[in-house]
Amino acid sequence: MKATGIVRKIDELGRIVLPMELRKAIGIDSPVAMEIFADDDKKTIMLRQYIPADADIFTGVTTDIVKYEGKCVSKQSIKKLCDLAGFICIDPSEDIDIFTGKEAENLIEYNGIKVSEGTVKELSKAAGLI
């Protein structure tokens, strides 16, 4: 933490205004919830943007969340990461064969993974099962 040189008075209701330049510099857009911390001797106060425990670690959104390794990530962020990494990312609600990445009819779903009958036949042949 470093000193900013900014001094503000606390009003009679206990409020303090954070200057626009400071909010812009640290990326705080209003309105935003702030979490307040105080050290043991109560002479230092620290503010941090509040992010709920179940929020996406990248965007802060709280919808369509997947928990992985104790962290929360939204499906939207997962799709963006897949795009950035060059992977095909398929929404489970879409009728797409997970192996081919193409839309297909007569999909078989197993443990949340959708595969076309044609792919199952090809995999079975490759494994020597048929």
Annotation, overall tally of beta strands: 6
Mean pLDDT: 82
Distance between the termini: 66 Å
Shape: rod-shaped
The biggest beta sheet reads: 2 strands, antiparallel
Describe the structure.
The protein is 21% helix and 20% strand. It is an alpha+beta fold. It folds into 3 domains: 1-50, Pemi-like Protein 1, Chain: D (Ribbon); 53-87, no CATH class; 90-130. The strands form 3 sheets. The protein has a two-stranded antiparallel sheet with strand order 1-2. Strands 3-4 form a two-stranded antiparallel ribbon. 4% of the residues are buried. The mean pLDDT is 82.
Provide a brief overview of the structure.
Helix content is 21%, strand content 20%.
Labels describing this entry:
130 residues, alpha+beta, Pemi-like Protein 1, Chain: D, 3 domains, two-stranded antiparallel ribbon, two-stranded antiparallel sheet, 20% strand, rod-shaped
Spell out the blueprint of helices and strands:
Layout: H1 20-25, E1 34-38, E2 45-49, E3 65-68, E4 71-74, H2 75-85, E5 107-110, E6 113-116, H3 117-126
Antiparallel strand pairs: 1-2, 3-4, 5-6
